[in-house]
Amino acid sequence: xxxxxxxxxxxxxxxxxxxxxxxxxxxxxxxxxxxxxxxxxxxxxxxxxxxxxxxxxxxxxxxxxxxxxxxxxxxxxxxxxxxxxxxxxxxxxxxxxxxxxxxxxxxxxxxxxxxxxxxxxxxxxxxxxxxxxxxxxxxxxxxxxxxxxxxxxxxxxxxxxxxxxxxxxxxxxxxxxxxxxxxxxxxxxxxxxxxxxxxxxxxxxxxxxxxxxxxxxxxxxxxxxxxxxxxxxxxxxxxxxxxxxxxxxxxxxxxxxxxxxxxxxxxxxxxxxxxxxxxxxxxxxxxxxxxxxxxxxxxxxxxxxxxxxxxxxxxxxxxxxxxxxxxxxxxxxxxxxxxxxxxxxxxxxxxxxxxxxxxxxxxxxxxxxxxxxxxxxxxxxxxxxxxxxxxxxxxxxxxxxxxxxxxxxxxxxxxxxxxxxxxxxxxxxxxxxxxxxxxxxxxxxxxxxxxxxxxxxxxxxxxxxxxxxxxxxxxxxxxxxxxxxxxxxxxxxxxxxxxxxxxxxxxxxxxxxxxxxxxxxxxxxxxxxxxxxxxxxxxxxxxxxxxxxxxxxxxxxxxxxxxxxxxxxxxxxxxxxxxxxxxxxxxxxxxxxxxxxxxxxxxxxxxxxxxxxxxxxxxxxxxxxxxxxxxxxxxxxxxxxxxxxxxxxxxxxxxxxxxxxxxxxxxxxxxxxxxxxxxxxxxxxxxxxxxxxxxxxxxxxxxxxxxxxxxxxxxxxxxxxxxxxxxxxxxxxxxxxxxxxxxxxxxxxxxxxxxxxxxxxxxxxxxxxxxxxxxxxxxxxxxxxxxxxxxxxxxxxxxxxxxxxxxxxxxxxxxxxxxxxxxxxxxxxxxxxxxxxxxxxxxxxxxxxxxxxxxxxxxxxxxxxxxxxxxxxxxxxxxxxxxxxxxxxxxxxxxxxxxxxxxxxxxxxxxxxxxxxxxx
Length: 920
What we know:
It is built from 32 helices and 25 strands. With 920 residues, the chain is α/β, with parallel strands linked by helices. The strands form 6 sheets. It has an 8-stranded mixed barrel with strand order 13-14-16-17-18-19-20-21, surrounded by 6 helices. The chain has a 5-stranded antiparallel β-sheet with strand order 2-1-5-4-3, sandwiched between helices. Strands 7-8-6-11-12 form a 5-stranded mixed β-sheet, with helices on both faces. A hairpin with a 3-residue loop joins strand 14 and strand 15. The longest helix has 51 residues, at 191-241.
């Protein structure tokens, strides 16, 4: 059967059901009231339906009983009783019909259950009044008639089935009246009659109860259905009248049966021009709608474009098929809405989501989409595509110097130049910050890509004139080809990023193309990072210690702790490899904490005059908790703060200099020494030295090695030393590998020496042996031999012969033959002085050389003092140097050999010949 839509205006002629809900009551309470209203209406309609049957049954039974009682009862009583029964049923009949007529009116508030019960009891009492009173005076035949009539009246309770409680009250009243009549009106109650009465009442009660339950359940279901229909009707009415959308319906031939006035207004046609016509044709012949209707399946959000008098509009349709009780398709019914504004908003949002606000170029997400489309096209057409990553060189100083507004202006200018150079060859996008990308669909010609990269580099390098300021920047480019270098968007982006990283490493301003070596390096870096994380957890690191020597007397002052990593499979991994990786990945924090703890543990096992220096990364200095870590390590091992020295490079001040200086000042407050390492090789600034933070400057080894051949380097070192003295700082020379370097640095004023000449980095055990004197090899014996200065005819030569140090010199100078003879030859060749080395030799701290015998001088006891040490004074005359040598007094001795000394001029020439070359 065909289901036509119900016009929304048709309900206006009917009285609407009760749906008024208090504002304070929720929607569930309102629905419950609406269901109760529909239930009351259903009960009223059912009662009106059974009212004629119920009234006629009451009056007919009353006439039958009155006929039987004629002759035995006074006529006036019978007539009065009949009149009252007829009047009561007439009133009930009229009242039931009136309630049934207004059952769908909002003014019908429904009947109370108690009122229905009272009506049922009243009607039953009126009917049973005379039969019950006159039952005892009637003959047996009349009594049977009265009993049968009352049994029939019990069954008449079906007329009250819409209200189960009222029907039960009716049956109970009738049964009670009949029992009373038999009990008082008959001398004895016939069991058969009693059983009949009870049986009739029981059957009536059971049947009526089941019937009333069924009728009441149907009324409740009908009330629920009507409530839902009412809610749907109101919602649809609200939906259409408030302008949210419109309704439509078509038949099985897709002809319009019903359509809202809003749709007709949108199309600019009347309802008569649309009713009976095909809906797809009325909407502009949309083929998608036609195919959807022919499929006879539910659909939703079917958007289509309409050409109207007000311009192009977009509508969205949704519909469900109409199936009748026989399962036959009868058409579609659905809703529609105008989504033009929503569509425009979505397009604006999509544009904003895919475009960069500053430059107007596609953003990162849109670049990925373009690259995905280009990669798909390359896979299908076998024409490679390309992705170029661009990163501006020197752009950060632009923001720092000129401000972000001018930086944004530069980015806009760069975007315009890139678009101009690329033109139709590809799409230019901005990845964020100063990074750009170019997607090329056709990259079959590699030369064309290379030419484009060269033009872009030249174009970006041209100066930018912004607000009378000339700004110059550069660009580095990394390129990858798809699907040659990668089969997916993420893979290609990763390969292009690796190529860009390589271009940055090659000096910037260049273009690099991805190769397999880059991938191998990246994978190796990733594996190294994983191994580094595992090494930190497994404690695979150790600290080696390189000696720090006092330049004045070559005594041991301390060590510099250097971290070493012995990988189980890689072997020794250079710190130059894993330290930068640890800084990039953030692992330097855990690694630095371990180094601090291990260095303090080692220093706690050594004497108090030995200090330990360790290097700090710039990443560690940005942590405000670093002083707490150092303080905890010092307290843990009960180490004095002045025995720990932290070395930092000038690169720590390139970033957050204020934060780094604050951390350094807090460390300095603890009493820890702060040294500025590699001074002069980085971004040196004298302003940092004025912060009263550093106590030591360390000259880089490159200056030490160049000082022998470059006078300018010597001047730089002299300036650094003078600067350090002005700030009362200690100067340490690193990378001292030769004797000439040592002499030169000492003469230039360096206080401490560090380098392979005095020892390579050694383990904790070897360092402990060196400190406690169990290891004697600190300086190379060959260097000892070369530094045992003196000629056989000089005071130094006499001392060498006296102490038997020819053997010591010969032991070091193996190339001269060794032994005492070799020592003599060496001493004849070398005439320079080395009192400090001789003192080390006497102490037994020079490898391969035994301490010389201690012979008493004149007037001294044997074994009391070392032999006298003579020196050539600057004025050129012999004298015994007064003072203390190794804590023992040195006096003039008559037994010393006083030979003729050269004149002052000869001494000056001698010093110029032997000392000038070592000074530069």
